[in-house]
Design brief:
Largest sheet: none
Number of strands: 0
Strand content: under 5%
Shape: elongated
Number of helices: 22
Length: about 550
Amino acid sequence: MLLLIALGIGSVLYANNELKLLTDSLRRVIDEKHVFVKEKEDRINRIKCMLKSPGLTLEGEYRINLRLYNEYKKFHIDSAIHYVDRNIEISRRLNKPYFTNQSFLNLGLLYSMCGRFREAEIILKSIKTSELPRDLLINYYQTYSSFWGHYSISVANNLYGKQQAAYQDSLFALIDHTSWDYRMSQASYYIWRDTLKSKEIFKELLEIEEVGTPNYAMITHSYSRLCHHQKKYDEEKKYLMLSAIADTRNATRENASLQSLALIAYDEQNLADAFKFTQSAIDDVISSGIHFRAIEIYKFNSIINTAYQAEQARSRSHLTTFLISTSIILFLLVLLVLFIYIQMKKTLKIKQALAQSNEELLRLNNKLNSMNSQLNDTNNQLCEINSIKEYYIAEFFDVCFSYIHKMEKYQNMLYKIAINKYYDELIKKLKSSALIDDELSALYTRFDKVFLGLYPTFVSDFNALLKDEEKIILKPDALLNRELRIYALLRLGITDSGKIANFLRCSTSTVYNYRTKMRNKAAVDRDEFENEIMKISSTQET
């Protein structure tokens, strides 16, 4: 039992939420109606451009005009009549009775839609049904049925509704029982005779019809009538909204669903939506010229408009009362605040003075802390620089003495070769770069050892600043490679690319390219990469 109650509550909440979403969607679609009208007009203009095609035949023009008639029929009746009149003229010039009868049927339908019932009846009576092929005969009964439907709405007489039903019966006898028109008419026929059968057909039609099409709008509108007959009013609203949304998006101005929703909103005392839906429907009627819809909407427009204006007046009255009350309360609050302000003024001055003193003390304290921090950083840097300087001075003297000793040995060797007159060997020795290469290699090795003695974690710290796939992997016997030596020199404070190039015996552009390449491999911000290198610390004792 509890489960059934819970399911029932859940079902009600879901239905209410669905109706709210559909209502919001319909409001948005109405607000954006001008967009859909523009799309419709653009489509019509593209069809009109086809009339300017070179070499267009009269029959080709007829078929294009027929497309324009279908586009304008529920959008702007006067334009639809214009193109039907042109087709009547073309059909007579071509001497094609089929085209003539088709055009007069179209004109009769348009006349009945815009309220020219006498002219519509004359046209329909003038058509000889015995001369009509099956498809036009079906069209004839459909048009006559619509004529009596429009007329019955205009004069509010159910007798004409019975005549409409008589033509529908004739239509049923002719129309293909598998066609959409037949299934749609059948579903509508069973609404008051067999609700289960009607619902079954409507569900089948909804399953095969694409959402949002003009046919979808017609199906959902007719299905809402079945829901109303079954007293399922929430479902009625749902399908009316689906129909109204589809009609509005298709710029169909014969929007019966919107009129029904306006009446429902009025009955529910939702005057804002009732007014909005009514105004949109009136706008459609005025723009399209569909007379029988105008009669329907004008019947209740004045009622809804009067109620809406009265509601607006009540709202303004309530708002005025609220504003007056609020103004009085605000005035009293201002007096209270003024009284409190006067009482607190002296205390506030004392607090301000104390706060100012505290701020000054805090500022001085922060400044002192900052200066101490800077002094500590400077001392640490000086200690590190002094340590590095002492270390490198000692290494410098050691290297210098070593090279002087090597030069003396090399000089003695060359002297012995020269005095023994081994000139070929002397020239060979002087031309050879082996000594220089060996000494450079020894110098770089010594530099690497000295630098790593000062910065033993340099390689790992350097790799930590690179992306995983870009980390430098040294050969087994190597301490540093050329890229690492460039950044080792930078860490020692040698930032001039020219000096670095001289030390590494390469061009300045090579050094620049290496530096750019490494910045692009950085895991950190490339512009901060070299600043991060300078933060790699030394472990020398100070």
